[in-house]
Amino acid sequence: MRRFVYCKVVLATSLMWVLVDVFLLLYFSECNKCDDKKERSLLPALRAVISRNQEGPGEMGKAVLIPKDDQEKMKELFKINQFNLMASDLIALNRSLPDVRLEGAYQVPGMVPDPVIGSVS
Fold first, then answer.
1. What's the mean per-residue pLDDT of the chain?
2. Which of 42 and 59 is assigned the larger pLDDT?
3. pTM, entire model
4. Residue-range definition of the domain harbouring residue 17
5. Domain count of the chain?
6. Are the C-beta atoms of residues 77 and 86 closer than 8 Å to each other?
7. In angstroms, rounded to a whole number, what is the distance separating the alpha carbons of residues 13 and 23?
8. Cβ atoms of residues 58 and 91 within 8 Å
9. DSSP string spanning 59-81?
């Protein structure tokens, strides 16, 4: 009889905590809608800032041309890591690439929610 009472207490306590968790999740899930509707797109601001020379090797997805006198050196460097190391060294780290998104991708309604990350120990 005593074991049955303990089971009822454990189940009631667990149910209470589940209800509290559901309430908290539902209450705080609407927090991102509390902000006033500001322009969240950084794309126009970034495009205005980025006005630099786009003529270097690899800029805007263009091919990197290796001079004929460096072809042998390019083949030797290729043997090191099995990719065109000379072309990789010529391409700037912060090069520009063309924007290949569809027109509808520019008009994303609202802010995309952050992903939920869980950790189990």
1. 80
2. 59
3. 0.41
4. 1-31
5. 2
6. yes
7. 15
8. yes
9. GGGPPPPPPGGGHHHHHHHHHHH
Would you say 60 and 91 are in contact if contact means Cβ atoms under 8 Å apart? Answer: no
Integer Cα distance of 83 and 7 in angstroms: 65
Position 108 in a domain: no
**37, part of any domain:** no
Element (H, E) at 9: helix 2-28
> What is the token pair recorded at 23?
């309430």
Place of tokens 């890591």: 81
Asked if the model's pLDDT at residue 81 lies above 70, the reply is yes
Range in 66-70, 76-80, 113-117 the model is least confident about: 113-117
**In the numeric block, which tokens belong to residue 51?**
């006005």
If DSSP codes are grouped into helix, strand and coil, which group holds residue 23? Answer: helix
Q: Considering the domain boundaries, does residue 12 fall inside one?
A: yes
What residue type is assigned to position 110 of the chain?
G
Mean local confidence (pLDDT), 50-56: 67
Residue 110: the pLDDT is: 65
Record the tokens describing residue 67, joined without a space. Answer: 């001079």
- Rounded CA-CA distance 60/118 in Å is 38
**Quick check: is 112 in a domain?**
no
- Written as six digits, the tokens of 53 are 């020379």
